[in-house]
Task: structure prediction
Amino acid sequence: MCGIVAYIGHRQAYPVIVKGLKRLEYRGYDSAGIALLDGSLKLYKKMGKVAALEENVIGKSLDGNIGIGHTRWATHGEPSDRNAHPHMSNSGKLAMIHNGIIENYASLKQELIKKGYRFSSDTDTEVLLNFIEDIQKNNGSTLEEALRIALKRVVGAYVIVLIDKDNPDTLIAARKGSPLVIGIGKGEHFLASDASPIIEYTKEVVYVNDYEIAIIKSDELILKNLGNERQTPFIQKLDLELAAIEKGGYDHFMLKEIFEQPGTIYDSLRGRLDVQHGTITMSGIENNIDKIKDANRILIIACGTSWHAGLIAEYIIEELCRIPVEVEYASEFRYRNPIINRGDMIIAISQSGETADTLVAIETAKEQGAVILGVVNVVGSSIARLSHAGAYTHAGPEIGVASTKAFTAQLAVLTMIALRIAKERNAITPERYLHLLQELHDVPEKVSEVLEKADLIREVALKYQDATDALYLGRGYNFPVALEGALKLKEISYIHAEGYPAAEMKHGPIALVDEKLPVIFVATRDAYHEKIVSNIQEIKARKGKVIAVITEGDETVTSLADDVLPVPAADELIAPIISTIPLQLLSYYIGVAKGYDVDKPRNLAKSVTVE
Ligand code: G6P
Result:
């Protein structure tokens, strides 16, 4: 994680960088810092959010047309002023920002300490920086050469950007594993972890590839590989508007993103789902339909909320397509020597398209010959580029750290993929197929109906804001919805919450139930409805407080539950997209009532680019 921004050109670098860092705070907000070059090298850093840095630099000299900035999610060394980036080399000539992890930093540090280097932070970044400086000093090489040599010895992931007091007209950057976008302006260049700090200045961007070094002047961008061969920068046009990354009148990005869902789900279906003609058209799927439909097995790889989307997709794909599906945590998959056979297909799900574990997991699978299908939100991201084929979720930029609209868009896209494959395999009856197309088409409208009840959900949230624990239960398609509900509550209200299959609750969690424990049931009408009603009775018999997401008009559960959150009726296979909305709002209102920064919950980051 961590966000990086750098600028070189005719403008003052400070305002460009600070504004950019604020847009990237979702990537980490333990500390922020900036280095500016204007004859001298000025370095300002502060623990906390970018706003704390801004306060700290009031009255200080902020001039300079070249600079680098960083917002940190701590890996090596606690969040503090001294561990904040940028770091300065021992000579005081170089400053560097870094997103990633240098795994062999400890041995490099020992080497450098023996040579007399001193370290003023606990970071791996400062080690890499001095390692580069040491090579430069010993070999008498240019910074670019020293960097190339250093990177060949480095194990880990990085995007780094360096400024050099002796070369005040050049920025040098390098990437492996973490994202780097370069915006190309007229006589200026912008560097950032994603395009959001760049779009208001230019729409022309270059996504730097792994093992590339960029040498950037105001009016020149040179890309080279680690073998010192020039690479041709591939300039792309950004399809992103500034309004999409601003709050637009909402108190928080999270609330804005929850309320955007009728539109974002519609966008993910638009141009693909055609109820009238009974078709689903997704070019990434169409072009590979033979391979996909004949897959012997589908492996879904993801992390966090995207993993929950994968669990729902498992149920849907197995039901509709009759292809076996396994859902894997990317972090486990990549290290456990997984068996990948010919004819296996991987679906990688990721909002950011940059999650390090997911990225490496699919690289591994790709090397073993698997076909990779990416279901990704961020256009042009690393996972999207690494996939053989894919479908973008089109949810637009998601800024709130807790994922909401990206999740429902993932579900919409995965359901379409399942339906398309099922049709191709003749595994579904025409009636069921058309029925589900219609149901999917109706989702945005039903989500709007749930959002109209936000005030009611808020009232329920306020009743339970002081809970210390919560249990989320669901069955079938609604079991992963329960997991996602629990995750949302943990993430933004810091209340301990667990998701469980409702029946499995008897094998442990029921021991937690007392009159204080809120138990949230995802109990919309489905094939298991009677079973979940029994589970609700079991909780009530032990005096637990029951909050239930129900299908409108469900008198049975209404009479049992302490509070109900009604949603419109939907086919059980489609229902998760709708029943997840009240749980998002419940967590949001509890987090806000507790006074927490729901857009930037403590210790979390949106884009986890370290393993
Ligand atoms: C982080 C985010 C989550 C997200 C997960 C996976 O933990 O805070 O919201 O679900 O990463 O991210 P991805 O971008 O791969 O979906």
